[in-house]
Amino acid sequence: DGGITQSPKYLFRKEGQNVTLSCEQNLNHDAMYWYRQDPGQGLRLIYYSQIVNDFQKGDIAEGYSVSREKKESFPLTVTSAQKNPTAFYLCASSPEFGGGNTEAFFGQGTRLTVV
Amino acid sequence: AQSVAQPEDQVNVAEGNPLTVKCTYSVSGNPYLFWYVQYPNRGLQFLLKYITGDNLVKGSYGFEAEFNKSQTSFHLKKPSALVSDSALYFCAVRGLNTGFQKLVFGTGTRLLVSP
User: Fold this and answer.
1) In chain A, which residues touch B (CB < 8 A)?
2) Of B11, B29, B38, B92, whose CA is between 20 and 30 Å from B107?
3) With 0-12 CB in 10 A as exposed, 13-18 as middle and 19+ as buried, what is B53?
4) Which residues of B touch A4 (CB under 8 A)?
5) A–B: how many Cβ contacts below 8 A?
6) pLDDT above 90 covers what percent of chain A?
7) Which of B43, B46, B106 faces A108 most closely, judged by CB atoms?
Protein backbone atom coordinates (compact mmCIF):
# COMPACT_ATOMS: atom_id res chain seq x y z
CA ASP A 1 0.00 0.00 0.00
CA GLY A 2 1.21 3.50 -0.76
CA GLY A 3 1.43 6.00 1.99
CA ILE A 4 3.44 7.79 4.63
CA THR A 5 4.85 5.92 7.59
CA GLN A 6 5.89 7.67 10.76
CA SER A 7 7.72 5.95 13.57
CA PRO A 8 7.63 5.54 16.42
CA LYS A 9 4.02 6.24 17.32
CA TYR A 10 4.98 7.23 20.85
CA LEU A 11 8.34 8.61 21.95
CA PHE A 12 9.62 9.70 25.31
CA ARG A 13 12.54 12.06 25.66
CA LYS A 14 14.57 12.93 28.68
CA GLU A 15 15.66 16.47 29.36
CA GLY A 16 18.70 17.42 27.28
CA GLN A 17 18.37 14.50 24.91
CA ASN A 18 18.10 14.63 21.13
CA VAL A 19 15.55 12.37 19.48
CA THR A 20 14.81 11.60 15.83
CA LEU A 21 11.40 11.03 14.35
CA SER A 22 11.20 8.95 11.20
CA CYS A 23 9.07 9.72 8.14
CA GLU A 24 9.08 7.53 5.04
CA GLN A 25 6.86 7.78 1.97
CA ASN A 26 6.45 5.50 -1.03
CA LEU A 27 4.20 7.85 -2.98
CA ASN A 28 7.05 9.20 -5.11
CA HIS A 29 6.24 12.69 -3.88
CA ASP A 30 8.76 15.45 -4.30
CA ALA A 31 7.77 17.65 -1.37
CA MET A 32 7.72 16.68 2.29
CA TYR A 33 6.74 18.62 5.39
CA TRP A 34 6.87 18.45 9.17
CA TYR A 35 4.12 19.98 11.29
CA ARG A 36 3.74 20.31 15.01
CA GLN A 37 0.27 20.08 16.57
CA ASP A 38 -0.57 21.52 19.96
CA PRO A 39 -4.07 21.69 21.45
CA GLY A 40 -5.92 24.80 20.30
CA GLN A 41 -3.13 25.92 17.97
CA GLY A 42 -3.74 23.92 14.88
CA LEU A 43 -0.80 22.78 12.80
CA ARG A 44 2.40 24.78 12.59
CA LEU A 45 5.03 24.20 9.93
CA ILE A 46 8.48 23.24 11.22
CA TYR A 47 10.46 22.40 8.07
CA TYR A 48 9.72 21.55 4.48
CA SER A 49 11.68 20.05 1.63
CA GLN A 50 11.11 20.68 -2.05
CA ILE A 51 13.54 18.11 -3.34
CA VAL A 52 16.31 15.78 -2.25
CA ASN A 53 19.19 17.55 -0.48
CA ASP A 54 17.16 20.71 -0.06
CA PHE A 55 15.07 21.89 2.87
CA GLN A 56 13.82 25.16 4.29
CA LYS A 57 12.75 26.45 7.68
CA GLY A 58 9.08 26.84 8.38
CA ASP A 59 7.46 29.00 11.01
CA ILE A 60 8.84 27.28 14.13
CA ALA A 61 12.17 25.71 13.12
CA GLU A 62 14.16 26.66 16.23
CA GLY A 63 15.29 23.59 18.14
CA TYR A 64 14.67 21.24 15.22
CA SER A 65 16.76 19.88 12.38
CA VAL A 66 16.03 17.77 9.30
CA SER A 67 17.76 16.02 6.43
CA ARG A 68 16.61 14.90 3.00
CA GLU A 69 19.20 12.48 1.67
CA LYS A 70 16.64 10.32 -0.09
CA LYS A 71 13.40 11.21 -1.80
CA GLU A 72 11.51 8.76 0.38
CA SER A 73 12.80 9.90 3.75
CA PHE A 74 12.58 13.12 5.76
CA PRO A 75 13.63 12.53 9.39
CA LEU A 76 13.11 15.21 12.03
CA THR A 77 15.49 15.62 14.96
CA VAL A 78 14.20 17.35 18.06
CA THR A 79 17.25 18.78 19.76
CA SER A 80 17.84 19.75 23.37
CA ALA A 81 17.50 23.36 22.24
CA GLN A 82 13.77 22.85 21.79
CA LYS A 83 12.48 23.93 25.18
CA ASN A 84 8.94 22.66 24.89
CA PRO A 85 9.02 19.61 22.63
CA THR A 86 6.00 17.79 24.01
CA ALA A 87 3.56 17.70 21.10
CA PHE A 88 2.09 15.63 18.31
CA TYR A 89 4.27 15.66 15.20
CA LEU A 90 2.86 15.11 11.74
CA CYS A 91 4.75 14.42 8.54
CA ALA A 92 3.15 15.10 5.16
CA SER A 93 4.02 14.91 1.49
CA SER A 94 2.64 16.29 -1.74
CA PRO A 95 3.31 15.45 -5.39
CA GLU A 96 5.04 18.66 -6.30
CA PHE A 97 6.70 21.47 -4.53
CA GLY A 98 4.11 23.82 -3.06
CA GLY A 99 1.50 21.27 -4.02
CA GLY A 100 -0.59 23.78 -5.87
CA ASN A 101 -4.00 22.30 -6.22
CA THR A 102 -3.03 18.91 -4.88
CA GLU A 103 -3.76 17.91 -1.35
CA ALA A 104 -1.08 16.89 1.10
CA PHE A 105 -0.99 13.34 2.44
CA PHE A 106 -0.31 12.85 6.14
CA GLY A 107 1.29 10.16 8.24
CA GLN A 108 -0.28 8.87 11.44
CA GLY A 109 1.82 11.06 13.67
CA THR A 110 4.32 10.67 16.49
CA ARG A 111 3.45 11.77 20.01
CA LEU A 112 6.57 13.03 21.76
CA THR A 113 6.59 13.46 25.52
CA VAL A 114 9.35 14.87 27.68
CA VAL A 115 9.83 12.91 30.88
CA ALA B 1 0.05 36.62 4.61
CA GLN B 2 -2.28 33.68 4.36
CA SER B 3 -4.53 32.88 7.29
CA VAL B 4 -7.49 30.72 8.18
CA ALA B 5 -10.05 31.26 10.92
CA GLN B 6 -12.27 28.59 12.37
CA PRO B 7 -14.39 30.62 14.78
CA GLU B 8 -15.90 27.69 16.67
CA ASP B 9 -13.80 25.49 18.91
CA GLN B 10 -16.63 22.98 19.06
CA VAL B 11 -19.84 22.24 17.22
CA ASN B 12 -22.52 20.04 18.74
CA VAL B 13 -25.22 18.45 16.62
CA ALA B 14 -27.69 15.62 17.02
CA GLU B 15 -27.42 12.60 14.76
CA GLY B 16 -29.55 13.02 11.66
CA ASN B 17 -29.44 16.81 11.77
CA PRO B 18 -27.50 18.90 9.27
CA LEU B 19 -24.11 20.18 10.35
CA THR B 20 -21.98 23.17 9.40
CA VAL B 21 -18.37 23.80 10.38
CA LYS B 22 -17.30 27.34 9.57
CA CYS B 23 -14.11 28.53 7.92
CA THR B 24 -13.01 31.93 6.66
CA TYR B 25 -9.73 32.68 4.97
CA SER B 26 -7.44 35.49 3.96
CA VAL B 27 -5.09 35.19 1.02
CA SER B 28 -3.78 37.34 -1.81
CA GLY B 29 -5.54 36.43 -5.01
CA ASN B 30 -7.50 33.27 -5.54
CA PRO B 31 -7.16 30.47 -3.02
CA TYR B 32 -6.89 26.73 -2.98
CA LEU B 33 -9.00 25.57 -0.03
CA PHE B 34 -9.00 22.22 1.74
CA TRP B 35 -10.82 20.40 4.51
CA TYR B 36 -9.20 17.64 6.55
CA VAL B 37 -10.53 15.44 9.35
CA GLN B 38 -8.53 14.03 12.25
CA TYR B 39 -9.52 11.20 14.54
CA PRO B 40 -7.84 10.86 17.96
CA ASN B 41 -4.11 10.20 17.81
CA ARG B 42 -4.20 9.87 14.03
CA GLY B 43 -2.98 11.86 11.08
CA LEU B 44 -5.12 14.12 8.95
CA GLN B 45 -7.35 12.67 6.27
CA PHE B 46 -8.26 14.68 3.22
CA LEU B 47 -11.99 15.36 2.78
CA LEU B 48 -12.35 17.78 -0.11
CA LYS B 49 -10.87 20.76 -1.88
CA TYR B 50 -11.85 23.82 -3.86
CA ILE B 51 -9.63 24.74 -6.78
CA THR B 52 -11.86 26.47 -9.28
CA GLY B 53 -15.25 26.13 -10.90
CA ASP B 54 -18.43 25.15 -9.10
CA ASN B 55 -18.67 26.79 -5.71
CA LEU B 56 -20.20 23.69 -4.16
CA VAL B 57 -17.63 20.97 -3.74
CA LYS B 58 -18.50 17.40 -2.82
CA GLY B 59 -16.10 15.19 -0.95
CA SER B 60 -15.68 12.03 1.06
CA TYR B 61 -18.19 10.56 3.51
CA GLY B 62 -21.06 12.74 2.27
CA PHE B 63 -19.40 16.03 3.15
CA GLU B 64 -19.58 19.08 0.97
CA ALA B 65 -18.33 22.63 1.20
CA GLU B 66 -19.43 25.90 -0.29
CA PHE B 67 -16.92 28.43 -1.51
CA ASN B 68 -18.09 32.03 -1.14
CA LYS B 69 -15.61 34.48 -2.56
CA SER B 70 -17.38 37.63 -1.40
CA GLN B 71 -17.49 36.39 2.17
CA THR B 72 -14.10 34.64 1.92
CA SER B 73 -15.64 31.57 3.43
CA PHE B 74 -15.46 27.84 2.83
CA HIS B 75 -17.90 26.23 5.25
CA LEU B 76 -18.07 22.46 5.57
CA LYS B 77 -21.53 20.92 5.51
CA LYS B 78 -23.31 17.61 5.70
CA PRO B 79 -27.06 17.13 5.31
CA SER B 80 -27.37 14.42 7.97
CA ALA B 81 -24.76 13.94 10.69
CA LEU B 82 -23.59 10.57 11.96
CA VAL B 83 -22.13 9.78 15.37
CA SER B 84 -19.05 8.50 13.51
CA ASP B 85 -18.52 12.02 12.11
CA SER B 86 -17.36 13.11 15.56
CA ALA B 87 -13.77 14.25 15.07
CA LEU B 88 -11.51 17.28 14.72
CA TYR B 89 -11.90 19.19 11.47
CA PHE B 90 -9.29 21.46 9.93
CA CYS B 91 -9.67 24.01 7.18
CA ALA B 92 -6.56 24.95 5.20
CA VAL B 93 -5.65 27.45 2.51
CA ARG B 94 -2.89 27.78 -0.01
CA GLY B 95 -2.39 30.87 -2.16
CA LEU B 96 -1.76 30.91 -5.88
CA ASN B 97 1.29 33.11 -5.87
CA THR B 98 4.49 31.87 -7.44
CA GLY B 99 7.09 30.12 -5.39
CA PHE B 100 6.49 27.96 -2.38
CA GLN B 101 2.96 28.21 -1.08
CA LYS B 102 2.72 26.57 2.26
CA LEU B 103 -0.51 25.05 3.45
CA VAL B 104 -1.84 27.17 6.30
CA PHE B 105 -4.21 25.50 8.73
CA GLY B 106 -6.90 26.81 11.03
CA THR B 107 -6.93 25.89 14.70
CA GLY B 108 -9.50 23.17 14.18
CA THR B 109 -13.12 22.63 15.17
CA ARG B 110 -14.19 19.68 17.22
CA LEU B 111 -17.46 18.18 16.00
CA LEU B 112 -19.52 16.19 18.48
CA VAL B 113 -22.50 14.29 17.12
CA SER B 114 -24.81 12.96 19.80
CA PRO B 115 -26.97 9.86 19.30
Assistant:
1) 4, 6, 9, 33, 35, 40-43, 45, 48, 50, 56, 58, 88, 90, 92, 97-101, 103-109, 111
2) B29
3) exposed
4) 43
5) 61
6) 70
7) B43
